[in-house]
# Entry
Amino acid sequence: MVVFEPLPLITASVSIDEHHLIIGTHSCPQSIKKIKTTIAAGATPILINPSHESHIKEISSIFLNESGFQLATRGFQLSDLTTLGRTQVQRVVDRVFINLSPEETPLTRKIYEQCVKLRIPVNAFQRPEYSTFHMIPTFTDPKGSGLQIAVTTNGRGYILANRIKREIVNKLPSNISQVVTNMGAIRDQIIHEDHEILLREKYLKTELSRDKLGYGLDDDTWESHKFNRLIKEFEMTNAEQKLKRTRWLSQIMEYYPLNQLANVTLDQLDENSHTPINLPSPNNPDNHENSQSINPETPANTENNSEVQLGVHLRSKSPNSIGKGRISLVGSGPGSVSMLTLGALHEIKTADIILADKLVPQAVLDLIPQGTETFIARKFPGNAEHAQEELLQLGLDSLKQGKKVVRLKQGDPYIFGRGGEEYLFFTQNGFEPLVLPGLSSSLASTVVSKIPATQRAIADQVLVCTGTGRKGALPVAPEFVPTRTTVFLMALHRSDVLIKTLIDAGWDKNVPAAIVERASCPDQRVTRTLLRYVPATIEEIGSRPPGLLVVGHAVNALINDSNLQFTEASKYYIEEGYHEFEMNFDNLLH
Ligand code: SAH
# Structure
């Protein structure tokens, strides 16, 4: 059984100009490391009470030219804590690192007690009992993007934490520095250009406050449940119009393949831009020889990311390059490659051009052969109609050029995917699509979260509906049937209104509910609660789109867990992650 213990609060401390006292050099390398990290944080390290003559020499030789570094070769006295600090804080030092030998434990204890009294954060090397904070193994991007990743197991092994940190870092795309730098630059520019105008025009004061923008400056106060908030495309206020780029950027950061974020430009966030976001397909050596750039205007991109090829490519062996174009509308399933149909895989592998929805899972996009022209719809709040037209037009133009067009849609094309409209559009334009069903998130989400949508004596029917009707209006509330499992798609961003409508319409407010997010993806999250606690739960845990809501007694039919006793004080229960045991598709797919 897991016993929950209090967990330390992880923060990033701004330390510029602070005075950090390092007492002793029992472990010389440790002291050197502390001095280095202190300097890197913009603080002044003051080393006092070096343990050995040779340490003084070694440390002096390394930090001789560091202007901020101070060394006092004398012994330590308690008054140092309150005399070596900055004048602004009445000379109390800002932080203390103790590095004394085990024989000096009484002194370590004394310093620790005094620091606690004075509220000075203190860390004693290898003595957690005399520390009020611990250093965490941290990865700091050497290219200076500002990215830092820290991992702690809270006393279960520094080495293990270090190893986990390395594994995480290894999984990041190789261009992660550019991703962070590029997104940061675009975000800054938008904040300056758009928000400042708004602030000046007092929009923010009257109509929108900064928190409604969907993010704050502090990573932790970023309110993810707000960023997906519905924007009524046809009734956007002036201020909302101006904040569009902000929202688009948030969406891009949330949904787009991570490695592609290095290449997004501010231009592409301009609603008048006619360039859809071109997704260079990931490297797939198997298809390499099949692809060659035939457009001299858009040569293969050799700069900054060798995996990336920009521009228009036709595969020379394409059977569809000549003759009449052909189109298929293909469902790509909810997320996991294991839920992709063989038909969908065939279409992805043989397309000349792929027009993908924003939600198409990364794992599926990764299967697109290199050289296949790929576009992702810019379907962001406030741009859905425009993006849809843009994509359909691109599809039609490609068909007229005789290409094989694959319209890749998330889940099933005909379940809230506008597949029907697209079928009509292309058919009316002379190209009847082949439509391939996909596993809909509405029915896969239940399975991966241990919910049998029907179960004898518990649920004998299933309803799939939306929480958001046309143009943002609430749909008619479905009737409450106790033996029914109801799945609400597109329902989480305005759950307060939805749940109120349901309860007003006679739904049992204590019926079990599950918020299933990123179903079948590695970062899947399933949150069980009761219908009435859904809005408060979302407010608290934020959102991890895409997600849906499952309501009905089937939600807990397979689970007998004391964690499911919900009260005001304990409103929900979360399960993280999705594992497919040892499924490996490499041999099957490539
Ligand atoms: N055609 C898709 C649904 C498109 S509507 C399908 O059949 O699955 C988009 C909505 O689907 C999202 O708002 C969310 O409610 C739901 N959704 C899609 N993928 C999901 C996933 N992996 N996990 C949870 N919900 C998902």
